Amino acid sequence: MFDPSGIAVVGASASEGKIGYEAMANAAAFDGPVYPVNPSGSGTLFGEPFVESVSDIGGDVDLALCCVPGPALPDVLEECGEAGIGAAVVYASGFAEAGDEGERLQARVVDVADEHDVSLLGPNTSGFVVPERDLRCSFASGVEKIPAGNTAVVAQSGGVAHVLAFQSRRQGRGVSAMVGLGNRANVGFTEAIDYFDGDERTDAIVLHVEGTDDGRGLLEACRESDTPVVAYKVGQSDVGEFAESHTGALTGDHELYTAGFAQYGVPTVDATDDLLDAAAALGNSPEPAGPNVGVVTAQAGPGIIVTDRIQRAGGRLPELGAETRARIDDVLPGVTYTGNPVDTGRPMPEFGELVTAVAEDDAVDIVLVYELFEEALGFPVASLSGLAERVGKPVLFATEGVEEEMAEEKAALAEAGVPTFETPERAADAAGVLARYAELSARVAAEEVSRDA
Amino acid sequence: MFDPSGIAVVGASASEGKIGYEAMANAAAFDGPVYPVNPSGSGTLFGEPFVESVSDIGGDVDLALCCVPGPALPDVLEECGEAGIGAAVVYASGFAEAGDEGERLQARVVDVADEHDVSLLGPNTSGFVVPERDLRCSFASGVEKIPAGNTAVVAQSGGVAHVLAFQSRRQGRGVSAMVGLGNRANVGFTEAIDYFDGDERTDAIVLHVEGTDDGRGLLEACRESDTPVVAYKVGQSDVGEFAESHTGALTGDHELYTAGFAQYGVPTVDATDDLLDAAAALGNSPEPAGPNVGVVTAQAGPGIIVTDRIQRAGGRLPELGAETRARIDDVLPGVTYTGNPVDTGRPMPEFGELVTAVAEDDAVDIVLVYELFEEALGFPVASLSGLAERVGKPVLFATEGVEEEMAEEKAALAEAGVPTFETPERAADAAGVLARYAELSARVAAEEVSRDA
After folding, report:
1. Could you tell me how far CA B99 lies from the centroid of its own chain?
2. Would residue A69 count as lying in a domain?
3. Do A277 and A153 fall within a single domain?
4. Which of A186, A198, A441, B420 is least surrounded by Cβ atoms within 10 Å, i.e. has the fewest?
5. pLDDT digits (tens, 9 = 90+) for B273-309
6. CA B257 – CA B234 distance, rounded (Å)
7. Rounded Cα distance, A154 and A164, in Å
8. Which of B255, B283, B311 is the last residue of a domain?
9. A36: Cβ–Cβ under 8 A, 6 or more apart, which residues?
10. Alpha-carbon distance B84 to nearest alpha carbon in chain A (angstroms)
11. What span, in angstroms and rounded, lies between the C-alpha atoms of A1 and A354?
């Protein structure tokens, strides 16, 4: 599915606006063979000659994008199976989310897929995208602009998958893949987590969950994953009827999910932007050893916000060691506040040295730096570069300023592997996720040891 | 203070990096006279000749930016007062936030200021900016890029004032003014709220509050304000010691503040981005008559997020009227979900008509629209333009897509007065603030009636 040799676009259409046109337009960029399939098509589409049926294609196609209405699907999938195509994306809706008749149709489709060993993404999805391979199996516009990154976005809703991918772009990040699962006929959370855990482009997996009837499978896949997983479970208030009409799943009990995720080592968040922030922190940092956050700030006000928020998000602010305090006092006698946070009052050339001192403190597991951008000083890129790897701790950086004036310095931080954040609250929440991840991981590991004993 | 004729920069300096240099660099853009004041200065600074003392300046200066150390301040303020300068910004720290000696110094400074009737912003602030007048009384870099808008930012912390102003820029908005109050020696929340309530550039006032010992004054100023006020009270967890070291105020009890704000008609939020979103919603909308939100979405997944979140934020999703349902069915038979939210499944040319139908429903007080951008269709600008004014209800719009592809259409929405939001959660939270504002305002009004009776 996510690493095909060639693609068949079944139901490809020359009519702009139709899904069969938009899907072909996006798929055509793929560097393997892409075949528009339509018995009534003639000539070429995006430079590729129409073929009548998937059975007319040789063995170089292993993924079918099905742009056909629901009722045509069983036959199409059968043909795909017989042609040796092992994966299919189904965009059509009108299945399990649409009442009894749709449910029966979905059951038939799954039977055919299972019988022919076809992995089936959807139905009722907008598809998936793997930016690094120019693999754009979505009918939505703009997906060619989604940048490559190291976060795999696995969303129950195709719409939310796109929301997350475009958001990630706006935040200057990117995705290793973005997948909308839709009705999860036979490719669900479990299969996606398994796959992206083994994917070398992926360093963090984020889940958008509305509800599933295989909660245990989902949780076990999370626990098995060596790649960090963060989950966003929607539906705390009653949105049952509307949600059911969407992907055919009840949103279920929010607290149960949250507790379940925690028990299986998965931190949860409560918004799309927090989900991507958490992935940026987890996917670009050494694994945190504990929940203790050392904060260095160049301005007190944002420092208070960050401190407050970390504590509420599950992190702790330990006292710094005597040695660290002495170092700080050495670098900068009379610094505004030498507790934790260390507050320098304003940006200064010594800022990077103070960050280093805090990062090297044994009481600190995670470092968070806040600094408003001051053009004359820039960011302490030299001090931050390689710091996380050297001390074996996550180092997060948040700032604010004029975007275009900061651009170069921000790029230098990204180059140095330092994850950056847009607001003090979001940086603190990301540190909180790291803190919870450390605690949950330790708990899960301890349980495994006691179970083995 | 916020509308001066001319400015004196006391302690102006030719040494780059010094506050007296940076403050002069920023102030120099002002279109009235700006005087660098320094007895040891010679020649000119940013084209303006140095003067020895404020007493050497004629009567065209009414604001002094004091870039002098704390101990020099009583004399400087006395000279200002005697020269008829009625307002001063004090950047220096080392006052009430820094222990007993600082407290005594601050008391002396306030005495001098009061005696000479000088309004004093600070001490311990980075100042203020009024973009539309090119009035940049801050020493921070980049403030010349803060765009003009209709939100007044009043922050206890100068750092947070800058965070909010730059964030507002990043969000494509702007501020009528941004003010860091610092230690609030004699210009505090009360004075700032009073001023911006009467400021014709300001349609919403946002407060960042760490803590104050004049809670009642603050709350009463909020209630007196005809301009909507939203507050962000920081410090839910214990940050007491660090906060006290900052602006000399305890952060106090978060719940007490929140309840107090509610009682006086002020909705509260819990993050800097939410604060600006709330202002964008309140400052660019007719006053909402109630908490009932009609949601129209082009994608179910974001629609579920929005629905869930509105309900948790204090809004309600009423059932739409029979007439509205019939209109929707007329425009688009078999639309995916005709309850509230109305879900069209994907963007379509009829989308704007559906939004209009929902906006005109009597059960609806607030409208929220979510739509992923599809280039071939654009946004329903024609339908949305003037809609809020016509129906007398706020209409909020949230989207996601490729920024540069959406830019033109987003600008058209801004031109049409439609406030836009960056994530489904933030749009829903803004709708929640509108809902709470409507309920709180109604309660405050009812109390006033019963008190008068």
Report:
1. 31
2. yes
3. yes
4. A198
5. 999 999 999 999 999 999 999 999 999 999 999 999 9
6. 10
7. 10
8. B283
9. A9, A12, A24, A44, A45, A46, A48, A49, A50, A51
10. 32
11. 48
Q: What is the pLDDT of residues A343-380, one digit of tens each?
A: 998 889 999 999 999 999 999 999 999 999 998 899 99
pLDDT of residue A249: 54
Q: How far apart are CA A381 and CA A387, in angstroms?
A: 10
Pair A43, A117: CB distance under 8 Å: no
In a domain, B43, yes or no: yes
The domain that holds B19 is classified in CATH as: 3.40.50.720
Amino acid identity of residue B244, one-letter, is E
Q: Are A304 and B242 inside 8 Å of each other by CB?
A: yes
What ipTM does the predicted assembly reach? Answer: 0.94
**What tokens were used for B165?**
């102003």
Distance of CA A11 to the CA centre of its chain: 30
How many CB atoms sit inside 10 A of residue B198's CB?
11
Taking a C-beta distance cutoff of 8 angstroms, is the pair A186, A120 a contact?
A: yes
Residue B173 structure tokens: 């908005």
Domain end (from A283, A306, A339): A283
- What is the residue type of B14? A
Q: Are residues A293 and A402 in the same domain?
A: yes
8 Å CB contact of B305 and A160: yes
Q: How far is CA A120 from CA A1, A75, A127, A189, A380, in A?
A: 9, 14, 11, 13, 48
- Sign, CA dihedral B209-B213-B215-B220, equals negative
Contacts of A303 (CB under 8 A, 6+ apart): A295, A297, A337, A341, A343, A370, B159, B242, B246
**Mutation target vs B (from A146, A156, A210, A242; most B CBs, 10 A cutoff):** A242
Q: Domain of A37?
A: 1-126
* CA B440 vs CA A20, A116, B165, B190, B316: distances in Å: 51, 61, 27, 20, 15
What is the pLDDT, as a whole number, of residue B337? 74
Distances (CA, A) of B89 to B56, B127, B198: 19, 6, 21
Neighbours of A140 (CB within 10 A): 28
Q: How far is CA A372 from CA A405, A425, B2, B166, in A?
A: 12, 14, 24, 10
Q: Per residue in B394-434, pLDDT tens?
A: 999 999 999 999 999 999 999 998 999 999 999 999 999 99
The answer to whether B419 and B396 are in contact (CB under 8 A) is: yes
| A345 and A333 assigned to the same domain | yes
Closest residue in B to A376 (Cα–Cα): B17
How many separate helices (H) and strands (E) can be counted in chain A?
A: 16, 19
3-state secondary structure of B449: helix
Q: Considering CB atoms only, which of A163, A210, A307 is closest to B372?
A: A163
Q: What phi and psi values does residue B359 have, to the nearest 5 degrees? A: -60, -30
Same domain, A115 and A163: no
Taking one residue from A and the other from B, the number of pairs with CB-CB distance under 8 angstroms is: 228
What is the C-alpha separation between B162 and B174, in angstroms, rounded? 12
Evaluate whether residue B450 is within a structural domain: no
Q: Say if A133 falls within a structural domain.
A: no
Query: Do the Cβ atoms of A372 and B162 come within 8 Å?
Result: yes
Cβ atoms < 10 Å from Cβ of B287: 14
Same domain, B397 and B344: yes
- Shared domain for B295 and B407, answered yes or no, is yes
Taking CA atoms, what residue in A is nearest to B427? Answer: A271
Q: How many domains does chain A have?
A: 3
d(CA B206, CA B164): 10
Q: Which residues pair with A34 in a beta bridge?
A: A7
Q: Are strands A148-155 and A135-138 parallel, antiparallel or unpaired?
A: unpaired
List the structure tokens of A135: 């693999």
Cβ neighbours around B414 below 10 Å, total: 15
Domain harbouring B216, CATH code: 3.40.50.261
Same domain, B155 and B54: no
Same domain? B313 vs B403: yes
CA distance A327 to chain B (A): 20
Of A409-423, A425-439, B240-254, the poorest mean pLDDT is in B240-254
